[in-house]
Input
Amino acid sequence: MRDVYVLGIGMTRFGELWASSFRDLFVEAALEAIGDAETDRLDSMYIGCMSGGLFVGQEHIGALMADYLGRAPIPATRVESACASGGAAVRLAYLEVASGASEIVLASGVEKMTDGADVTAALATAADQEYEVYHGVTFPGLYALMARAHMFKYGTTREQLAQVAVKNHYHGTMNPNAQYPFEITVEQVLASSMVADPLRLLDCSPVTDGAAAVILASEEIAKKAQAHPLVRIAASAQASGALALHDRDDITYLDTVAKASQLAYQQARITPEKVDVTEVHDCFTIAELCVMEALDYTEPGKAANLVEAGETRIGGRMPINTSGGLKAKGHPVGASGVAQIAEITAQLRGEAGDRQVAEARIGLAQNMGGTGASCTVHILEGLA
Amino acid sequence: MAGIVGYGAYVPCYRIKAEDIARQWGGDPGAVKRGLLLEEKTVPGLDEDTITISVQATRYALQRAGISPAEIGAAYIGSESHPYAVKPSGTVLIDALGIGPEVHVADYEFACKAGTEAMFVAWSHVQAGHMKYALGIGADTSQGAPGDALEYTASAGGAAFIMGKENVAAEILETYSFTTDTADFWRKEHEYYPQHAGRFTGEPAYFRHIEGAGRGILEKSGRKPEDFAYVVFHMPNGKFPLRAGKLLGFRKEQIEEGWLVNIMGNTYSGSSPTGLAAILDVAKPGDLIFMVSFGSGAGSDAFIFQATKRLPEIQSKAPGIRAILGENRRYLDYGQYAKYRRKIIFNSPV
Amino acid sequence: MKSPQYTREIPQRYRLEAQKCKQCGKIHFPPRLICDACQSRDFEDVHLAGKGRVLTWTVIHVAPAKFDLEAPYVIAIVEMEEGVRLTCQVVDCNPEELALNAPVEMVFRRIQEDGQADIIQYGHKAVLQRE
Output
């Protein structure tokens, strides 16, 4: 397998984008990535999308997007792994280039969530329909089950969960594409309306329209490009686990995140301490804590202490979700995993503006689907 | 001799007080309570219906009978609130309990008499030797129209009886039925709430049929009112069964044990069967029990039971109905009650 | 859920039918064609007795449209006495009555309907054991 580089990145603004259609969102992000890469060549494309069918009634998304991007007849494939669809699309594009089958491949993610579908029900299809959702559980509900179990096991507090959202909103103020670029307080989180006890509205990532795209290329192509400092994909890993939360040995521990990150650390030949900047899948505040623990950034039960101490803020020892994360940047489910790669690439290039992490050389992006039954981990290395 | 080998009764945990219904419609709470002799009634949870009530009551009956569900040859649910207009309630029940598929299933409907019909047919099969065990259930989640007198009483609950010839806990010594065409209460297809003929539901309907069946079975059996330890009648309100007892020559003390209506309401097809369950919870070997149901339309089924030595052995194998009525009562106000009984018009989908 | 899918799952929904791996002893609910623990395909049928304890719970305030009328309602992960876990509602209680390891038993209830004219879908919910 040969090395793969990130040649270009692009994303739409994230938010309630009433004027933009599903296909427009994709095309806008893809054109920005193509422009950023300063290339006209595309050999194939992958589109991560969780549920075009339920959100806008559209399947067969690969061909639709290739057509509207003006790139037919190149191969175009829709990738679905619930909220990890974006990460999975990046991984397939990576593998296609790494294998030598293609030179330049677009990986993208798109979701149009505000066109009037029952979003709660659509998102719930990422859980076990027959044995979880049948009984009326929602996604906030599943993460609330994890949160309460984490509280029982480790004494994690309500305030500690709120601090994750406060930190990510602070980061979001520096991201011009963020859906919610404003600060919030712990008190505001604790006073927000209950969604699924103990999780409140401000513990939850929002419903978002948006798309993101990255162009991946071989070393030969990347080294000819002059537009940006080089960023290499040092590892691409993925793991699967039990779809139903109740089937996990430990409800508070994300096995797939642990497995995918271990594979990624091995492939990149690094240890977790070497990571300078991280994007994690904070669909709910509890998720960021559980992911930090499974990434081996700290022992199980200790992640909240790092958040409390400010270690995960920009300027801290291990900045996490500098983009604002899913919480403040927004969570167009199929696009989030790709937007994470765009953020890490921007950081490693030194192009992250106000939210730039000083001397960031190694970045990690963790994306997951459902309650973590699918997880992708990518490690990127800046070669500036 | 064939009879009851296992019984069980169940009511939902939700309640509404008669006075809260009275206040909603500008009635006099005191007068309603005095007039109907009714404190409160049961209300089904949003997730309960005739089928779920029947399943829970039958689980208790199976616990008491100590038999394998697979040995039951027939299962009959009597109700005026079968959840489907077309599709049997009994099929859900038998698959939920592991009865069948080699089983005869039918749903019965005869206003408030459907439960004792189911019991009668189940007993008849066993008595005739068609099968080893048969199940008869009376259960309802009855509805009275908002503001109608029936709204004070129409409640939810039911009782299940497994009939057999071995290990009988209460033998059925005699049965008698009395039926005429009397339109005192009815509901046509697609109508949500029943209609009734006001005071015509009393003398020419309830009392005529209860008395007809009651006198008939006393005569047929050659027994006198004083022979019986316990008596239960259909209980559309608190007063009617007490008056029916008096008409037939029974004392109030014989009626009290099965008289659940003041704290349960009228569970329609489940009414007299649930009262019978309350009696079986306390009866002693040798006790004679007199029962007359009533269903509008109209008719009554009468039974004479005699408790056997086995009854005390099975009483505590499942919760008694007075214990169920007493524990975990969860009171609703009228607004919540209107939501629980789906009396509020929503935008779809709900 | 439409009728064919619903009907197929009746043994699990109505009777809590599970299976035990003859090789490693792991109990699966619902049954699987291959044991995820040991890859065996040799199973025996077991019925869950319907008693368990609450491992964690939530109270759903924002519900899918089908469950809107019931909100707020409790959802829990219950570990059955046989060791297998499942997700279900806990009903007939106040959320304040829930506790870690609270003993529960399963009762047969209506779970959902696609719409007023569609089939009623039944299954099991948990109630707190009060004795």
About this structure: The first strand of chain C starts at residue 17 and ends at 21. Residues 16 and 48 of chain C are 6 Å apart (CA to CA). Chain C touches chain B at residues 10, 14-15, 65-66, 68-70, 89, 91-93, 107-111, 114-116, 119-120, 122, 125, 130 (CB under 8 Å). Chain C has one domain: 3-128.
